[in-house]
Specification:
Layout lengths: L2 H13 L4 H13 L1 H6 L1 H6 L2 H5 L4 E10 L5 E12 L5 E7 L5 H18 L4 E7 L8 H15 L8 E4 L6 H15 L22 H16 L8 E4 L4 H12 L3 E7 L2 E4 L7 H13 L5 H7 L3 E3 L10 E3 L9 H9 L4 E3 L8 H9 L3 E3 L1 H4 L1 H16 L5 H25 L6 H20 L3
Parallel strand pairs: 3-4, 3-5, 6-7, 6-10, 10-11, 11-12
Antiparallel strand pairs: 1-2, 2-4, 7-8, 8-9
Helix pairs in contact: 1-2, 2-6, 6-16, 6-18, 7-8, 9-10, 9-16, 9-17, 10-11, 13-14, 16-17, 17-18
Amino acid sequence: MSNYASRVLNDLKVRYANEPEFLQAATEILTTLDPVISRNEAKYEKAALLERFVEPERIITFRVPWIDDNGQTQINRGYRVQFNSAIGPYKGGLRFHPSVNQSIMKFLGLEQTLKNSLTGLPMGGGKGGADFDPRGKSDAEVMRFCQSFMTELSKYIGADTDVPAGDIGVGAREVGYMFGQYKRLRNEFTGVLTGKGLAFGGSLIRPEATGFGAVYYTVEMLKSFGEDIKGKTFAVSGFGNVAWGTCLKVTELGGKVVTISGPDGYIYDEDGINTPEKIDFLVEMRASCRDKVQDYADKFGVPFFAGKKPWEVKVDVAMPCATQNEVRIDDAKNIVANGTKFYVEVSNMPTTLDAVEYLRENGVVVAPSKAVNAGGVAVSGLEMSQNAMHYSWTAEEVDQKLQQIMKGIYEASFNAAKEYGMEGDLIAGANISGFLKVADAMMAQGAV
């Protein structure tokens, strides 16, 4: 690494030693950006560009008091990390999950900054959420929590300032409650949240967008390596919206998904998760809040492997769709041993650094999450555009725009890696392509 990048990274490791997820993301990004930084080192260092790039513009933390169905007051912690607004208003999801903390919010905000840049749409990077668990809560409890959360968050967001969306634990129900509270507080109907219901400004294709976009990216990747999605087998983890959209689009394009997983283990469906009944059941499983993928095995009579991950299954393409750091070094060794050629990160940073290194050293093509899963935020950006125009596109129009965006992301990433002497390195290519646009905007706007 250049002296400048190395110094910035070392300073981060000292200052944020208790934020492992954020440091993991920063390390991966700064390491792969080294060719760009070396070429522009004097200019960037004089402007303290990297110091500003890795530091959020603003972090908002707050308590969220709410009353449960027994009349007991509960307290959770809320966050909004407004990471970078150089190319547009902050944009990024809200996550409701017990694991939420500042380190996770910062890593997601940093990744989101580059991801949003890759889409080509005018969106900056942000992320937020709370350590609230909607599972097991009544609709009334979720509504009261969302209203309390938005009462504080509404002070810091707006259609031209910061536009949150959904993420883990935040679906159409939660977005609806938060949008209603924002509208009540501000007395305005604006596109302040994306992922809204179709009845009040949502976009068609949004629930499927992350999974669809990941598959469109995969199609382009396979083409560039002389391969075709037809006939390929896929291992998918998770069974939420992202896995559902992935299974749907892989099946439509001629591939076959043979696994999904949950906290309890994974199922193997040799025939493929490829019928409307099977794919729709993923939605039922998620809505049940049971978090048990064994329900699929019980319903369709397929093998269930308790306490295990699907990476021990022999497939052509592995697509983790669950959560961060779900794929570790032992999983990577299984993937390599099975002869899997393509590893496509769909969830945010699903792979530990040592696992990524092992996969790459053993000839597996690794596609990074910030490029692969950008379809979700891309359609959120399209939702913002539709709201601004007070207009709605058809599902076909949105899907066509999504395909073009994902094709553009792959091509920009591939070409950026090639330009900087790293041809075929899709991780470096995505980081470089996303960073250059943000860096140019930051330099043009001065020391802000």
